[in-house]
Each structure stands twice: as structure tokens, then as C-alpha cells.
């Protein structure tokens, strides 16, 4: 007689995402695997399982049928529903654990791999905080989930599936490349051929590939201070000698570039974190110096779509006639950070090398994710999303400025064209790291400024306030809490 899986092994987990049928299917598969049920083990009848879980018999029947089609279950005449012979089993014989030997000296193996020194940290449960003034997170209420679902359905449909299920051997989705070339890049005044564009897993992946190909121990790199810490960390990993130039209200000043510069990494549209925008005259000066002194420029144009107060300044790449600018863009900031779809634009020889390097890292970004994004862009959903996003950010920017005006906190930097964060200077003598720690008690999140400096001031009273994901009504009370804690901290005697 065949074994029977006890009905007690089947249960729905509280808080589990998905439809009722999906949760029940997961519960049945979980019970099969956790009991190591053998092929032919009987499951409870649909009536018995329905009564045990308080579900309708029809729901159980439909899930049984679905799992039969997936090969987990099978039906036998007069025997009911059973575990199929094709179900993945974990039948390995349990062995006694081997005695643990002396641990390896990982410090020896990793001797030339230094740990990261500068990391922007954000709690994984940031959504549990009432006042999340953090940068780079999206507001789900602004996103058209139905449109994205429709695009996913198209990409997974019969017409597209055969094409996208193949290994593209390092190539990218031609539909997405076409949209980037015909729609995204022209908005920045950039023209590019198909062999001059590479899709990446976000801007970060594009940056890593670029520095891996171009940075050398004998090539001096220059970047901004304060600036995006991953620029510094990626250059450090490449053992690249690096000079950090102070940023003023016009961003990086080309007149301060040291002799022997070979690579310049900049965020000319919105400096990270100050929001400073490089004027057109400086952009032209930087390009002139690049040609005269034979260096290359990496332009991270990470959030040009967040321009709602004024049109964005021309991209450096749009002014480049000599092919010295490597342009990096991303949809992760404008859509949602978990998307991880970015791109780089550069002369064909560099893109060919970048494609080869990407191929040995990850072959290519997932085909279907590229196609879903392409549909979302091509069908007009992206443009509609950007309109909603700009409207919300413009409103929140005004609320932020109004709330801050009534406090001793000073806006030390803000993107003239818009953006989604403000660079704040607190009262003299406070440390923004300590301030951030104390604000956790008030359910407030801010980003301490120390991480953005190569050599931070001590104490560092600067911090960043993002407003892409906080509710409008929570801005003023959240700012008031920050100001109160900052004043309390400033009033304390120095340690």
C-alpha cells in the first residue's frame, strides 16, 4: 500500500505573497519536498484538504490539476492524486559530518582585495519607517503596475518567447537598443549606431566595465569630492591612482585638473550628492582639455529624466565630436531600482571590448527583462510614468524647501533642474552619523554625508535628504523631527 502524506503537513504561510491558488500550490510542493515523499505517495482528497485548510473544494481541485500539468502530481484510476515519479526529489543519503579541519587563511587568499571603505547603507526595511528621506527608492503608488504586467505578458507570449528564450551570445535585445537609440539618446542630443550601445545591469555595471577596461596603475584618474562613493571604490579596486577634486556650485572645475590626467569621471547634470550642475562653458572647457591633453571622460547621466524645474543641460556626450566621452545611462532611477537595466554609449571599438568583457561576466542581461522594458518604453507607458514622476517630485521639492525654511537646516546643494534629493548642512558641530542614529528612534531615515567624501570633515554635519518615496503629508513633520534632533545635538557639549 502506498504511503500517504498527512494532511497536517499542508498549511498556508501567513503573509505569503501571491494568489490563494499560488499559495496553496507552494504549500503542496513544500509538503512533498519536506516529507521527502516517494513517487506514488498519496495526497489527501480534494475534499479532505479543502476542509482542513478552510478552502473551497474547487480551489484545491484546480491546484491539483495545475501541479499534475507541471509534473509534481499524477492521477491513477481508483487511487486518487499521487506524487509523480518526475518530481524533483532530495534522496541523498545523509552522511556523518566530516571532522572540521583547520580553517583556511582567507586573509592570505584575499591579501590584495581590500574591503570596501565607503558604502552607502540603507536598511532593507526602509519601508517600515514613517519618514524615509532616502535617495533612489521608488514610490510604488506612481508606477503603472497594470501596464508593466501587460508588457510582461507580451514579452512572455508565443510570438516573442522563441526569440527571447535563445542564448544571444552577448548580443542585446534589438527592440530595446532601437528604443534607446531613437528615443532616450536623442532626448540628450546624442546620436549612436547599434554597435555603439551596450545594455548593462544598471549604471553600476556599466561603470565597472568601463573602469575595468580603461583604468591602469599608470593612468591618473580624477573624480569629484564629494561624489558617488562607488566611483572611488571601483577605481581603488582597479589600483588606479586617483585625484579627488573639490566640487563647487558648478560641479567639477576643469581648470583644476592635474597634469597627467588620463581619465575623468563626472556627473555633470546632477553631482552626487550636492546636485551641482556643470555650466555649459565648463563642459566645453572639459572637452577641449580632453582633446589637448589626451584623456577620456566617463559621464554618468543617472537621472536626467528628473528635470521638472528647468530643461536639463546638454549632455557632455552631445557636445563630443572626438569620441572621448563614454556615456552611462540607466532606467533604474526613473522606473524602479530593482530593474537593473542601464546602458553605455561609446565608440564601436570600446563597445566591442565591453561586450566581450560582459560576456565572460554574465553573457548578457536577461532577454525577457530587456524586452519587457522595451515594450514599456515603446508603448508610451514610460513617458506617461515620467510625467507622473516629475509632477510628484516637483510638488515634494516645494514642500521640502518650505519645511526646511522654518528650520536652522541649510540647503547646501540642490539640482537646478529638479532631481530627487537635497544636500543639507546641519548646525555647526553636529555629526550627521550620530544624528541619523538618533533619528531612528523617531522612525526617520536620513543619509549621513561622510560616505560621499574621500576625506570627510570631522565632524561631518552634511547629509542627504531624498524625497522620491516619502508621502507628501509626512515631509513637514519629518523635517521638524530632523531639526529638533539636530538642535539637541548641537546643544550638547563637545566630547
From TrEMBL:
Note the InterPro entries from the entry: Aminotransferase_I/II_large (IPR004839), HTH_trans_reg/aminotransferase (IPR051446), PyrdxlP-dep_Trfase (IPR015424), PyrdxlP-dep_Trfase_major (IPR015421), Tscrpt_reg_HTH_GntR (IPR000524), WH-like_DNA-bd_sf (IPR036388), WH_DNA-bd_sf (IPR036390)
Residue ranges of domain HTH gntR-type in the record: 18-86
Tell me the domain of life. Answer: Bacteria
Classification via Pfam families: Aminotran_1_2, GntR
The answer to whether keyword Transferase applies is: yes
Q: Name one GO molecular function term.
A: transaminase activity
Q: Which UniProt keywords apply?
A: Aminotransferase, DNA-binding, Pyridoxal phosphate, Transcription, Transcription regulation, Transferase
Could you confirm whether the keyword Ligase appears in this record? no
Family, similarity comment: In the C-terminal section; belongs to the class-I pyridoxal-phosphate-dependent aminotransferase family.
Protein name per Swiss-Prot or TrEMBL: PLP-dependent aminotransferase family protein
Provide the species name. Paracoccus simplex
Amino acid at each position: 500500500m502506498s504511503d500517504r502524506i498527512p494532511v497536517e503537513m499542508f498549511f498556508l504561510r501567513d503573509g505569503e505573497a501571491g494568489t490563494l491558488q499560488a499559495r496553496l500550490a507552494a504549500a503542496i510542493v513544500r509538503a512533498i519536498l519536506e516529507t521527502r515523499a516517494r513517487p506514488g505517495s498519496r495526497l489527501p482528497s480534494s475534499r479532505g484538504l479543502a476542509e482542513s485548510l478552510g478552502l473551497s473544494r474547487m480551489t484545491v481541485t484546480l491546484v491539483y490539476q495545475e501541479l499534475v500539468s507541471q509534473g509534481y502530481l499524477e492521477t491513477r484510476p481508483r487511487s486518487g492524486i499521487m506524487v509523480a515519479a518526475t518530481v524533483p526529489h532530495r534522496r541523498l543519503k545523509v552522511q556523518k559530518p566530516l571532522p572540521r579541519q583547520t580553517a583556511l587563511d582567507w586573509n592570505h587568499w584575499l591579501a590584495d582585495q581590500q574591503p570596501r571603505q565607503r558604502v552607502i547603507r540603507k536598511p532593507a526595511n526602509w519601508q517600515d519607517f514613517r519618514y524615509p528621506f532616502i535617495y533612489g527608492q521608488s514610490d510604488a503608488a506612481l508606477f503603472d503596475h497594470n501596464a508593466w504586467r501587460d508588457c510582461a505578458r507580451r514579452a512572455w507570449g508565443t510570438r516573442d518567447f522563441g526569440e527571447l528564450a535563445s542564448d544571444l551570445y552577448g548580443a542585446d535585445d534589438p527592440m530595446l537598443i532601437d528604443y534607446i537609440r531613437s528615443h532616450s539618446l536623442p532626448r540628450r542630443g546624442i546620436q549612436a549606431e547599434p554597435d555603439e550601445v551596450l545594455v548593462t545591469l544598471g549604471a553600476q555595471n556599466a561603470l565597472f566595465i568601463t573602469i575595468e577596461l580603461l583604468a591602469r596603475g599608470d593612468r591618473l584618474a580624477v573624480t569629484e569630492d564629494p561624489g558617488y562613493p562607488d566611483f572611488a571604490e571601483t577605481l581603488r579596486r582597479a589600483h588606479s591612482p586617483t585625484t579627488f577634486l573639490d566640487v563647487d556650485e558648478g560641479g567639477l572645475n576643469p581648470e583644476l585638473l592635474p597634469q597627467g590626467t588620463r581619465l575623468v569621471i563626472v556627473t555633470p547634470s546632477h553631482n552626487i550628492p550636492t546636485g551641482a550642475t556643470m555650466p555649459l562653458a565648463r563642459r566645453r572647457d572639459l572637452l577641449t582639455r580632453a582633446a589637448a591633453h589626451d584623456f577620456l571622460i566617463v559621464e554618468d547621466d543617472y537621472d536626467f529624466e528628473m528635470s521638472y524645474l528647468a530643461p536639463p543641460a546638454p549632455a557632455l556626450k552631445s557636445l563630443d565630436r572626438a569620441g572621448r566621452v563614454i556615456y552611462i545611462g540607466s532606467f533604474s532611477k526613473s522606473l524602479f531600482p530593482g530593474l537593473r537595466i542601464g546602458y553605455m554609449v561609446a565608440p564601436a571599438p570600446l563597445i566591442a571590448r565591453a561586450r566581450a568583457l560582459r560576456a565572460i561576466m554574465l553573457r548578457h542581461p536577461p532577454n525577457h527583462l530587456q524586452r519587457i522594458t522595451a515594450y514599456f518604453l515603446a508603448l508610451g507607458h514610460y513617458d506617461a510614468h515620467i510625467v507622473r514622476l516629475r509632477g510628484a517630485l516637483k510638488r515634494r521639492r516645494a514642500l521640502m524647501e518650505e519645511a526646511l525654511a522654518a528650520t536652522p537646516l541649510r540647503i547646501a546643494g540642490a539640482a537646478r533642474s529638479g532631481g530627487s534629493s537635497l544636500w543639507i548642512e546641519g548646525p555647526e558641530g553636529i555629526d550627521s552619523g550620530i544624528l541619523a542614529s538618533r533619528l531612528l528612534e523617531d522612525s526617520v531615515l536620513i543619509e549621513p554625508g561622510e560616505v560621499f567624501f574621500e576625506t570627510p570633515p570631522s565632524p561631518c554635519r552634511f547629509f542627504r535628504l531624498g524625497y522620491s518615496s516619502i508621502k507628501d503629508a509626512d515631509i513637514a513633520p519629518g523635517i521638524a523631527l530632523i531639526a529638533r534632533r539636530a538642535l539637541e545635538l548641537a546643544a550638547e557639549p563637545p566630547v
